[in-house]
């Protein structure tokens, strides 16, 4: 959250100069546009200024327009500061000297393409700024002054002095708040990320704070007030560490004090509050909003305890109403259409009785301002939706009547029986998406707050009607001792249905298992929608690509090989009975029937000199049809063989014999050398084939160049094993200069992802760049470049002296290491911030991602086990080499293999959108990390499937590449159904699961069947019954132990041996499954 104190008080905060100039220019342009369209009272061509006054800090009202605009432009609240935006693209700021020093970079680092000029005026305490206010009022006297706060909510003597000066100068004022609201309502890309984080935080507060608290109160039958619950939820928002969320406390706060309502006393207004009354177990409405870095997200949910059918039916209608409202939230539609759509749906559903219960306002635009009063979703607002606006849509029914007839099916203990009216509401934060022509314009707003709201997930049943008679009987038989019975039951613990006591540990395990199952079910629902949306999205992407690409993707034709245009071009020293190598034309001239015949070197497969006898032999093997062509065969030769193989005759080999070994030995050596040169040249051409020419680096000439020294670069620059140097940030890129004078330039436009990994539980602090297009480093091309510093002492004394645990030298060493880590982290982080500022200043803004260590897991992406961490845009391991960096934008699907109850680890296959590339994989991930990884993929909207078997991905990808209808749900005849996209992987999982169930059913055989199967297995050599045999032998062994009368020690020893044997067999089976390539399941 942006601070409302003097930002100069600490050295940490800095202003985003590029963002200020961009947003100030956007605001002025928007006002000019409305001035031209005569939607405001500014006359066309008339001079004007817009006043943004920030008075004294008012924590009770954080959404004053002046405060919101300060956050929008500066990123901070600057108390007692006046900002004027004029029609001449000038921004005048009246504030203190310290704040002017803080804001001075607005001029010194001004972007080249900005037309905004910033003037500063220093506050004068001597006359309480009377002369400053008078001078500024005189400047705007010729035109009009636009105000963003027409109700004058700003407080303090500073704000009052400015208003008095405008009044004395008789400056006419114009309300431009709506124009400013429209400009701020259309969000930028950087704002989406912050809003999503605010929404995720709101989701987590519901899931980890409010819902567990509510369920605890209901389960225990506690009596807790609404205010008390709101205080606990608000405390979790203000300090997310209480619910084990690692979010900076300074970045978060509540949008409003959480609103919890129940017991029939409901209000669906924004101004509603939590009452001091106790929460009732009937209909519970909760509204919670969180701010992250000053951006707001809000969500409302309704929970039902023992609801009658009328209540649940009304709630289902409410969900349908929300969907009807979303259908009209599209660019070009008026805001008033939302409530009209809700009313129309109720009429078409024949629920006119609910129309009077529908609130007049169904939501509002939000962002830095929680509730923008100019963009309300009501019947009268004619403002049009625009793409990239963010709204809170809250639909509900207030005070719906509930008669005694509606409650007849309820238990007498149900507290809903006490209600004669109820309310329900659903509220979510949405982003309005641009109209997609290819989807028919049917794209709905993007949902940010994704907590479940389906009827089955928000209904709790604690009192069945059939329980009443049982309770009455127990009361009568208890003879008034029910209280003592209850206390005794509580002392003994939880009782199972069979009368047995359940321990608290088992209850905890059960609860955690229930939570895991519910989370898995919720993920499965979301994944089904994601898979469907992904198929539709990929179909549109492929259609656009095909439309743009045209015939560009057609395969190039084979080029015929040429050695000489005519016979006279051959070397003059060619003899009719000798082998000659022409290095210039890259051909070998061979004598055939006394005639010299040239062969291009690319047609030769290899050359061999067999053991000589009296003569010397030279055998030359050629590439030919009918044999498997290896990877080292030139692509053009492969095409030539495919082109001519149907009708041409190929020479497979030629052998030459000579009594004089000199010629053949020399030819062998020259052919081998020529083949080596050509192969190296072709490899280099292949390496450089997809290289994109980079623009030249423009060095920074103004100001101090951000620099980070004593860095080691990976991969190494040059021939040395280690490259050490310094990294500099310039106008359009970065330059690394080694201590030996070598340089490497990385252009901002070519950087896809910037990553910063601090040295937390690591031995190095890292800055890593993942590139869009590979660059040549040495003789190889690379898509990842890294710079790091190791966190170790330059030297360490090693002696034979023992040290105690309280040795001061050792404690000093640990302290020095901690200080070194802190110093390096701060240096690298400071450099990253400077790179962000420099790149933004020159129009190529880059942002650094930091890996989420709390979501890390171990796996084997290459050959070694390592720690893999997700970031906002990637999945990475930056410590080990080769680097493992997966750009999530390039990921099409993720598949989990070896998901079984018996295995302790599983594998993850990451399928890329480019089907010509083989999938990336991470092996041997512990089962404990599966739920966390799948939850993260779901949050990132990446679909996944899982199966118990390993698949032959090389064969699958070969089929997928050739399938033009892969994402279609029908075959070529457009009638026969087929799985769309990667959904066939989920079907294989279901098939495998059904097979496992059948095997388990068959394994539960009787004793007679067991004896018959044992006889069959004795007569058969099949290995398929090994598992059944081992189970039977264990069973028989137990019987023998009982017959022999073994004591407990012997029985435990035998059991331990049996467990080890079974674990060995299981490990052997898993290893054979991983290594067996031929029996792997194929795609259907």
UniProtKB/TrEMBL annotation:
<feature type="region of interest" description="Disordered">
    <location>
        <begin position="970"/>
        <end position="1084"/>
    </location>
</feature>
<dbReference type="Pfam" id="PF08512">
    <property type="entry name" value="Rttp106-like_middle"/>
</dbReference>
<dbReference type="InterPro" id="IPR013953">
    <property type="entry name" value="FACT_SPT16_M"/>
</dbReference>
<feature type="domain" description="FACT complex subunit SPT16 middle">
    <location>
        <begin position="579"/>
        <end position="736"/>
    </location>
</feature>
<feature type="region of interest" description="Disordered">
    <location>
        <begin position="461"/>
        <end position="504"/>
    </location>
</feature>
<dbReference type="InterPro" id="IPR013719">
    <property type="entry name" value="RTT106/SPT16-like_middle_dom"/>
</dbReference>
<dbReference type="Pfam" id="PF21091">
    <property type="entry name" value="SPT16_C"/>
</dbReference>
<keyword id="KW-0227">DNA damage</keyword>
<feature type="domain" description="Histone chaperone RTT106/FACT complex subunit SPT16-like middle">
    <location>
        <begin position="857"/>
        <end position="947"/>
    </location>
</feature>
<dbReference type="InterPro" id="IPR000994">
    <property type="entry name" value="Pept_M24"/>
</dbReference>
<dbReference type="Pfam" id="PF08644">
    <property type="entry name" value="SPT16"/>
</dbReference>
<keyword id="KW-0235">DNA replication</keyword>
<feature type="compositionally biased region" description="Basic and acidic residues">
    <location>
        <begin position="1053"/>
        <end position="1074"/>
    </location>
</feature>
<comment type="similarity">
    <text>Belongs to the peptidase M24 family. SPT16 subfamily.</text>
</comment>
<feature type="domain" description="FACT complex subunit SPT16 N-terminal lobe">
    <location>
        <begin position="15"/>
        <end position="180"/>
    </location>
</feature>
<keyword id="KW-0804">Transcription</keyword>
<keyword id="KW-0175">Coiled coil</keyword>
<keyword id="KW-0234">DNA repair</keyword>
<dbReference type="GO" id="GO:0006368">
    <property type="term" value="P:transcription elongation by RNA polymerase II"/>
</dbReference>
<feature type="compositionally biased region" description="Acidic residues">
    <location>
        <begin position="986"/>
        <end position="1052"/>
    </location>
</feature>
<feature type="compositionally biased region" description="Basic and acidic residues">
    <location>
        <begin position="559"/>
        <end position="569"/>
    </location>
</feature>
<comment type="subunit">
    <text>Component of the FACT complex.</text>
</comment>
<dbReference type="InterPro" id="IPR048969">
    <property type="entry name" value="FACT_SPT16_C"/>
</dbReference>
<feature type="coiled-coil region">
    <location>
        <begin position="664"/>
        <end position="697"/>
    </location>
</feature>
<dbReference type="GO" id="GO:0006260">
    <property type="term" value="P:DNA replication"/>
</dbReference>
<feature type="compositionally biased region" description="Acidic residues">
    <location>
        <begin position="467"/>
        <end position="486"/>
    </location>
</feature>
<dbReference type="InterPro" id="IPR011993">
    <property type="entry name" value="PH-like_dom_sf"/>
</dbReference>
<dbReference type="Pfam" id="PF14826">
    <property type="entry name" value="FACT-Spt16_Nlob"/>
</dbReference>
<dbReference type="InterPro" id="IPR029149">
    <property type="entry name" value="Creatin/AminoP/Spt16_N"/>
</dbReference>
<dbReference type="InterPro" id="IPR040258">
    <property type="entry name" value="Spt16"/>
</dbReference>
<comment type="function">
    <text>Component of the FACT complex, a general chromatin factor that acts to reorganize nucleosomes. The FACT complex is involved in multiple processes that require DNA as a template such as mRNA elongation, DNA replication and DNA repair. During transcription elongation the FACT complex acts as a histone chaperone that both destabilizes and restores nucleosomal structure.</text>
</comment>
<keyword id="KW-0539">Nucleus</keyword>
<dbReference type="GO" id="GO:0031491">
    <property type="term" value="F:nucleosome binding"/>
</dbReference>
<feature type="region of interest" description="Disordered">
    <location>
        <begin position="543"/>
        <end position="573"/>
    </location>
</feature>
<dbReference type="Pfam" id="PF24824">
    <property type="entry name" value="PH_SPT16"/>
</dbReference>
<dbReference type="Pfam" id="PF00557">
    <property type="entry name" value="Peptidase_M24"/>
</dbReference>
<dbReference type="InterPro" id="IPR056595">
    <property type="entry name" value="Fact-SPT16_PH"/>
</dbReference>
<keyword id="KW-0805">Transcription regulation</keyword>
<dbReference type="GO" id="GO:0035101">
    <property type="term" value="C:FACT complex"/>
</dbReference>
<protein>
    <recommendedName>
        <fullName>FACT complex subunit</fullName>
    </recommendedName>
</protein>
<keyword id="KW-0158">Chromosome</keyword>
<dbReference type="GO" id="GO:0010468">
    <property type="term" value="P:regulation of gene expression"/>
</dbReference>
């Amino acid at each position: 959250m942006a601070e409302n104190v003097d930002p100069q008080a600490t050295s940490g905060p800095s202003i985003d100069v590029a963002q200020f100039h961009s947003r100030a220019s956007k605001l002025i342009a928007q006002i000019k546009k409305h001035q031209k369209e005569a939607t405001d009272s500014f006359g066309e061509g008339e001079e004007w200024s817009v006043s943004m006054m920030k008075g004294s800090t008012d924590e009770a009202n954080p959404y004053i327009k002046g405060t919101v605009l300060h956050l929008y432009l500066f990123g901070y609240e600057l108390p007692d500061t006046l900002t004027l935006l004029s029609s001449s693209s000038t921004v005048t700021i009246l504030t203190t000297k310290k704040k002017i020093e803080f804001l001075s970079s607005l001029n010194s680092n001004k972007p080249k393409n900005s037309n905004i000029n910033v003037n500063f005026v220093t506050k004068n305490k001597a006359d309480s700024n009377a002369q400053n206010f008078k001078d500024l009022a005189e400047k705007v006297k010729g035109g009009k002054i636009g105000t963003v706060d027409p109700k004058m909510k700003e407080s303090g003597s500073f704000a009052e002095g400015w208003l008095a000066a405008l009044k004395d100068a008789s400056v006419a004022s114009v309300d431009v708040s709506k124009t400013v609201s429209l400009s701020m309502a259309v969000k930028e890309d950087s704002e989406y990320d912050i809003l999503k984080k605010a929404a995720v935080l709101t989701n987590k507060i519901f899931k980890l704070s409010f819902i567990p608290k509510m369920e605890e109160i209901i389960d225990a039958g506690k009596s807790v007030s609404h205010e008390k619950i709101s205080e606990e939820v608000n405390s979790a928002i203000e300090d997310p560490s209480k619910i084990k969320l690692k979010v900076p406390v300074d970045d978060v706060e509540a949008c409003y004090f959480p609103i919890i309502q129940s017991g029939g006393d409901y209000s669906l207004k924004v101004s509603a509050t939590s009452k001091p009354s106790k929460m009732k177990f009937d209909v519970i409405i909760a509204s919670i909003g969180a701010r992250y870095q000053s951006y707001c997200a809000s969500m409302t949910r309704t929970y039902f305890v023992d609801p009658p059918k009328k209540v649940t039916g009304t709630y289902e209608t409410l969900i349908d109403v929300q969907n009807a409202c979303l259908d009209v939230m599209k660019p070009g539609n008026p805001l008033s259409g939302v409530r009209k759509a809700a009313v129309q749906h109720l009429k078409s559903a024949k629920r006119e009785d609910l129309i009077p219960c529908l609130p007049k306002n169904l939501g509002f635009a939000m962002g830095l301002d929680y509730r923008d009063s100019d963009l309300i979703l009501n019947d009268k607002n004619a403002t049009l939706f625009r793409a990239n606006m963010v709204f809170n849509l809250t639909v509900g029914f207030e005070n719906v009547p509930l008669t005694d007839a509606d409650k007849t099916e309820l238990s007498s203990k149900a507290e809903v029986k006490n209600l004669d009216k109820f309310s329900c509401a659903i509220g979510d934060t949405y982003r309005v998406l641009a109209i997609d022509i290819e989807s028919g314009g049917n794209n709905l707003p993007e949902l940010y707050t994704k907590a479940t709201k389906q009827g089955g997930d928000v209904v709790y049943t604690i009192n069945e009607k059939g329980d009443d008679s049982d309770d009455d009987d127990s009361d009568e038989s208890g003879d008034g001792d029910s209280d003592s019975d209850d206390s005794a039951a509580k002392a003994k613990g939880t009782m199972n249905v069979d009368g047995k006591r359940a321990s608290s540990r088992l209850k905890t395990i059960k609860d955690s298992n229930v939570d895991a199952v519910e989370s898995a079910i919720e993920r499965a629902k979301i994944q089904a929608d994601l898979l469907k949306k992904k198929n539709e999205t990929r179909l549109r992407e492929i259609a656009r690509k095909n439309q743009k690409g045209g015939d560009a993707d057609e395969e190039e034709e084979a080029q015929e090989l040429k050695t000489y245009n005519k016979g006279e071009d051959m070397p003059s020293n060619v003899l009719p009975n000798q082998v000659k190598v022409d290095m210039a034309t890259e051909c070998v001239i061979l004598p055939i029937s006394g005639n010299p015949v040239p062969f291009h070197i690319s047609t030769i497969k290899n050359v061999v000199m067999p053991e000589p006898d009296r003569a010397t032999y030279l055998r030359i093997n050629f590439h030919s049809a009918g044999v498997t062509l290896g990877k080292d065969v030139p692509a053009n030769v492969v095409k030539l063989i495919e082109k001519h193989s149907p009708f041409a005759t190929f020479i497979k080999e030629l052998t030459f014999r000579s009594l004089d070994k000199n010629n053949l030995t020399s030819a062998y050596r020259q052919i081998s050398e020529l083949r080596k040169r050509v192969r190296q040249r072709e490899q280099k051409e292949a390496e450089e084939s997809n290289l994109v020419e980079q623009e030249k680096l423009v060095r920074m000439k103004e100001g101090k160049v951000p620099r980070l020294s004593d860095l080691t670069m990976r991969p190494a620059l040059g021939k040395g094993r280690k490259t050490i140097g310094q990294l500099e940030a310039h106008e359009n890129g970065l330059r690394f200069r080694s201590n030996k004078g070598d340089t490497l330039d990385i252009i901002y436009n070519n950087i896809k992802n910037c990553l910063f990994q601090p040295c937390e539980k690591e031995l190095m602090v890292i800055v890593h760049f993942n590139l869009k297009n590979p660059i040549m480093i040495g003789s190889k091309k690379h898509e990842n470049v890294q710079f790091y510093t190791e966190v170790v002492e330059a030297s360490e004394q090693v002696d034979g002296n023992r040290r105690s645990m309280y040795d001061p030298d050792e404690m000093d060493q640990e302290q020095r290491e901690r200080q070194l880590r802190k110093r390096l982290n701060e240096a690298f982080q400071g450099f990253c911030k400077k790179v962000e500022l420099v790149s933004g200043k020159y129009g190529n803004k880059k942002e650094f991602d930091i890996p989420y260590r709390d979501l890390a897991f171990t796996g084997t992406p290459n050959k070694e086990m390592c720690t893999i961490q997700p970031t906002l845009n990637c999945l990475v391991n930056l410590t080990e080499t080769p680097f493992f960096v997966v750009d999530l934008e390039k990921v099409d699907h993720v598949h989990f293999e070896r998901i079984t109850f018996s295995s302790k680890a599983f594998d993850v296959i990451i399928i890329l959108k480019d089907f010509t590339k083989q999938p990336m994989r991470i092996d041997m991930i512990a089962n404990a990390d599966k739920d966390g990884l799948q939850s993260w993929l779901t949050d990132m909207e990446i679909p996944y499937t899982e199966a118990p078997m390993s698949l032959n991905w090389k064969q699958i990808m070969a089929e997928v590449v050739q399938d033009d209808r892969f994402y279609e749900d029908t075959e070529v005849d457009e009638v026969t159904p087929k799985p769309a996209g990667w959904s066939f992987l989920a079907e294989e999982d279901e098939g495998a699961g059904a097979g496992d169930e059948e095997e388990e059913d068959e394994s539960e055989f009787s004793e007679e069947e067991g004896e018959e199967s044992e006889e069959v297995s004795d007569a058969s050599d099949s290995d398929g019954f090994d598992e059944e045999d081992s189970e039977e032998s264990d069973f028989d062994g137990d019987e023998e132990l009982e017959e022999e009368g073994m004591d407990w020690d012997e029985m435990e020893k035998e059991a331990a041996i049996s467990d080890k044997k079974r674990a060995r067999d299981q490990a052997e089976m898993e290893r054979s499954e991983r290594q067996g390539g031929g029996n792997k399941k194929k795609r259907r």
